[in-house]
TrEMBL record:
GO terms for biological process: intracellular calcium ion homeostasis. Residues 182-196 have a biased composition (Basic and acidic residues). It is a multi-pass membrane protein. This is Sodium/calcium exchanger protein. The chain crosses the membrane at residues 6-24, 36-56, 68-92, 104-121, 127-145, 270-298, 304-326, 338-360, 366-384, 396-412. Residues 197-207 have a biased composition (Basic residues). Residues 6-144, 271-410 form the Sodium/calcium exchanger membrane region domain.
């Protein structure tokens, strides 16, 4: 029955979203416990964190060779990020923006969208094109972490293109990884030296304690001997030391106890990681399977299911975060999240899905959906440039365009 399929679809979505949240949180904790640098954590977990639902569903669909679901999910998520999420934030409050956000990240988002459209023109995203997407995304992350932070002056889109085509990101990656490896080795050596020093200190203290105990016992024995021999008039000096109920290597016991607690808590984190990973896999599996089922049941192309049910479903968490940020006067964060998510969707997620299996592109995507995505991207950048803020009536325009497009595209399907 369709009702059961709807419940399975929603259950898969809940597992996918909640499992993704727990997976990112647990992975970050484990990485920090093992001394992984903030650079590696940011490069892998944090940057992908908000896009894990899209990534899991796209990879699952790619393994099932459901190209329509993959392409519809990517294009639909990019359109929903602008037409639904950014517009909602603008309706709640005027979004203040910065010039650098437009001239660097905004133009990179637009460039990724144009590159995607060009790659789609032959009705296929090949593995080579997917690899190019991933290479651009890695270069973008390194550009933000290295180039932008090192320079006090503003860094723009043209600087990113120079950075990419001069292969500077390869040198930056090498310069970052090598010190991290050396620092980790040095930290491990220091930890071993500390343990050895603690052990030696404990042994010396134990020997000192034994010597003091021998002196105390010998003094008491001599005093008792004098008393028995009739020398009671002489002052008796008894050297006493504070008895120690615990051995001097108590610190070592603490370290052992802490190590046991550390291992126990680490085991719990690993169990959470496995559970969340299983939730993502199971959730994505049922989510995509039911999406394909509805496509067959309603006799509509998979691309339409991807752009509607899958894209909107995986964007629900970002919508909730956007509403919360806008109410807390942090709407600018929501806009930055929209631009960053669109870049990640196009370059990273589509790139990973395309490496798994080449993605077939339908004429519906080329002639209707992709051009609308480009138009919405251009429109968002235009609205940002008007006073460096996205006003409420501009948010209303984006929302109405999105709703109108969804009605039109479903009718075409």
């Amino acid at each position: 029955m369709p009702v059961i399929n709807i419940l399975i679809f929603l259950g898969g979505l809940v597992l996918l979203v909640k499992g993704s949240d727990l997976f990112v949180l647990t992975s970050s904790r484990i990485a920090r416990r093992f001394g992984v640098s903030e650079f590696v954590i940011g490069l892998t977990l944090v940057s992908v964190g908000t896009s894990v639902p899209e990534l899991a569903s796209s990879l699952t669909a790619s393994f099932q060779q459901a190209s329509g679901i993959v392409m519809g999910n990517i294009l639909g998520s990019n359109i929903a990020n602008i037409g639904l999420i950014a517009s909602t934030a603008a309706l709640l409050t005027n979004i203040k923006t910065e010039e650098v956000m437009l001239r660097r990240d905004g133009y990179i988002m637009l460039f990724a969208s144009v590159l995607l459209f060009l790659f789609m023109l032959d009705f296929e995203i090949s593995r080579l094109e997917a690899l190019i997407f991933i290479l651009f995304y890695l270069a973008y992350l390194l550009f933000l972490l290295d180039k932008v932070k090192r320079h006090e002056e503003e860094i723009y889109f043209k600087d990113f293109m120079i950075y990419f085509f001069k292969f500077e990101y390869l040198f930056d990656l090498k310069s970052r990884i090598k010190p991290q490896v050396q620092e980790r080795g040095k930290r491990n050596r220091n930890s071993e030296d500390t343990k050895k020093g603690t052990l030696k200190t404990g042994k010396r203290a134990q020997k000192k304690h034994e010597s003091e105990s021998e002196i105390e016992m010998r003094t008491k024995y001599e005093s008792e001997s004098k008393i028995e021999m009739g020398t009671k008039n002489e002052p008796i000096t008894e050297l006493r030391t504070k008895s120690k109920t615990e051995p001097e290597y108590y610190d070592i016991d603490i370290d052992v106890t802490e190590e046991k607690l550390y291992k126990a808590s680490l085991l719990i984190e690993f169990l959470k990681l496995i559970a969340s990973g299983a939730a993502i896999i199971i959730g994505a599996k049922y989510f995509v399977e039911q999406a394909v089922f509805f496509a067959l049941l309603l006799e509509v192309p998979e691309t339409l299911i991807g752009i509607s049910l899958v894209a909107v479903g995986t964007s629900v968490p970002e919508l909730m975060v956007t509403i919360s940020a806008a109410r807390s006067d942090y709407a600018g964060i929501a806009l930055g999240n929209v631009i960053g998510s669109n870049i990640a969707n196009t370059l990273l997620i589509l790139g990973c899905a395309g490496l798994v299996h080449p993605i077939m592109v339908t004429s519906l995507s080329i002639y209707y959906i992709a051009p609308f995505m480009l138009m919405m991207s251009f429109l968002l950048i235009l609205f940002i440039r008007t006073g460096w803020r996205v006003k409420q009536f501009e948010g209303l325009i984006l929302l109405l365009l999105y709703l109108s497009f969804m009605v039109l595209i479903l009718r075409l399907g």
